[in-house]
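thoughts on these tokens:
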Amino acid sequence: MQFHEVKYDSAQPVDSYGPGFFRVAGRVIKGAMIVTEDTAISWDDPDDIAPLLALVGKIDVLFYGTGADPAHPPAALREAMEDAGIGVEAMASAPACRTYNVLLSEGRRIALAALPV
């Protein structure tokens, strides 16, 4: 088995997460967040889907981290994103972070919107 070091170049990987926070590219974000290849921001109101709709044309899939437990994303969020041509994959935040990092390392057009664990 060969191991390869993952290189993100200038991309924004999720380094770690814990109770109420995420660490993205070395920076701590408290509470919910949205992260893409080139930016990571605090998501002050997870009911506000405007920052996600601003990603139209930049991403193909949004990973939605639901916190500690798996859950469905809000129907309005899923419908708005799918109407805009963006797929939504919901899962608990821990696997959402891991999946985001793997696909980010492959150069995929993705974003992560995650609620803290």
The beta strands are 14-18, 21-24, 27-30, 33-36, 40-42, 61-66, 87-91, 110-115. Residues 32 and 44 are 7 Å apart (CA to CA). The mean pLDDT is 94.
